[in-house]
């Protein structure tokens, strides 16, 4: 199976959409042409740091158990080749649902593959409960190999970028607050979009993760995003409703490298 190109998103084209993820209300998005022709990132606002208060700080999360890193040297991803794909509960079973391609956002429908069996692939689904999977026929998808993986460590507010199983970059991020923590688990990137309203940076990835505490948010289902931010002072802290925030330059760097289907772990 061929290896995905280094900058696969340069040829991704997404239509306009309105998507609500847990970190925002109804967030408007515009079409993404090739990234080489994308408009320059929106300059970040200067946001004053909050005045310290005498109240006790939120307890550190470093004492909580941390899952082992899930950063495979290579991951199979499945891009749907037709206008839709049937999803079954078991290989060879009757379809329980049909997913459209492209997605409502305009993003191509691409899955992370977790198993293969006799002409079928088991893929991660962007639905509750977290970790949901389904089986799709191999004949309906194009398989390829993805050398990348990203791992977010909540206790350190960091995101490590892996390639071929090795860390190649590390970025500071903002994660969910104590009341709305970023859910832990093994997920995948599902779509790449460009927010048009201020506050969310130049790019936002959708993921297969959903909030453990917010069943809906801003008109959406509480889906977790990975995006930029105009509030650079929040980076390195627990500040969001569950989404992962990055400096705008950092999310741009990821948008130029990571294909859909890339493993996305929060630990």
Helicity, as a percent range: under 10%
Q: Which runs of at least 5 residues are low in confidence (pLDDT < 50)?
A: 1-20, 24-61
User: How many E-type strands?
Assistant: 18
Basic shape: globular
Give average pLDDT, whole number. 82
Largest sheet: 8 strands, mixed, barrel
Count of DSSP-assigned helices: 1
Q: What percent of residues are in strands?
A: 35-45%
Helix and strand sequence: EEEEEEEEEEEEEEEEEHE
Briefly note the structural class of the backbone: mainly beta
| Span between termini | 30 Å
Strands ordered across the widest β-sheet = 10-11-12-17-15-14-13-18
Radius of gyration: 18 Å
Characterise the protein shown here.
The model is unreliable at 1-20 and 24-61 (pLDDT under 50). An eight-stranded mixed β-barrel has the order 10-11-12-17-15-14-13-18. It is built from one helix and 18 strands. By secondary structure, the chain is an all-beta fold. The longest helix has 8 residues, at 248-255. It has one helix at 248-255; strands spanning 17-20, 26-30, 75-80, 84-88, 95-100, 110-117, 120-124, 133-137, 141-146, 148-153, 158-163, 166-176, 185-195, 204-210, 223-227, 238-240, 244-246, 263-266.
What's the SSE blueprint?
Layout: E1 17-20, E2 26-30, E3 75-80, E4 84-88, E5 95-100, E6 110-117, E7 120-124, E8 133-137, E9 141-146, E10 148-153, E11 158-163, E12 166-176, E13 185-195, E14 204-210, E15 223-227, E16 238-240, E17 244-246, H1 248-255, E18 263-266
Parallel strand pairs: 10-18, 12-16, 15-17
Antiparallel strand pairs: 1-2, 2-13, 3-6, 3-9, 4-5, 6-7, 7-8, 10-11, 11-12, 12-17, 13-14, 13-18, 14-15
